[in-house]
User: Fold this.
Amino acid sequence: MRLTLQQKEFADAVLNIQRAVSSKSTIPVLEGILLSTQNNELKLSAYDMELGMTTTLEATVQEQGRLVLNARLLSDIVRRLPGETVTLTSDEKNIASICSDASEFSIIGIPAEEFPEFPSVSETDSVEISQPMLKSMIRQTLFAVAADDSKPVHTGSLFELSPGQLRVVSVDGYRLAMRTEPVQSEQSLRFVIPGKALSEVLKLLGDEEENLSILIGRRHAIFKIGKYTLITSLLEGEFLDYKAAIPAGEKTIVTVKTAAFTSSVERVSLLITDRLKSPVRCILEENEIKLFCSTPMGRANDHLSCSLTGENVEIGFNNRYLLDALRNSEGDEVRLVLNGALSPMKVLPKEGDSFLFLVLPVRLKSEEF
Assistant:
């Protein structure tokens, strides 16, 4: 193999592709990136047996070839090269030479034949969606994906496609996050994408109004984003019946400024640590939210104005779960819908229901502040 390409493009591509490389594997080839040429392009591939990623770069190819190089070492070398172009060569003994200006590295590669094949995906359904929209949908729901694998299907987000609509739902046993947007589709599909894969998709998505394609097979999904292709296994299992988990009652409806409420919760949370945990007590009454927190370190209270209709309510929350919902809300104001002190609180946009966050309450002890 012998080729020349732009250093910055090469470094950026390696950095992105590297995220699909296995970080802890007893199989050396899974810690590498497969470099393969085709005509005047260099293709980079990484696959950890669950998540795979490929991209192509324009290159001047004098000699075709294929080789696997250690991803971490390749990334460290390429991003530190001094020149604007890089020349990459390899011989029959899988020794790669990387040159740029006065710098030259010679590193040992792995035969391309040892690199695992990507799974073949046939009989796919597909949907197209704008990159900024999917980026926003993933960002607003990824935080509620379960961290542990007591129920593996909840370590991913449910994608529910129905005619004219895409809904993304995440749950972890303590909260729920849901985002709904219109799309041009006449299909009805349900599939669960692992949270790890969605984190990588999020990093590849741009803010420009370009569409991406999602291809869905029986066991895998493929995201085609610009020059990048990402393939991931789908999670199997029975996802929570999220519609049944959303309370129907509306005893109290509160409209409050998102930033002000977030700042207030952050302030009273200063007394809470991993070792000293305590709920944030919220009293919603007479167009005011009063917040209290008490730990062995001390006590804190704060208050802010709001618009309240319905019953007054006193309710407690885990501060982190409440803050996650508020920080991922879009808009200057949010609508809080409560159905009593022991029912989950719904966090919605001021108008409509494009997103919905459900935060479970914490049972409060009777203590004086």
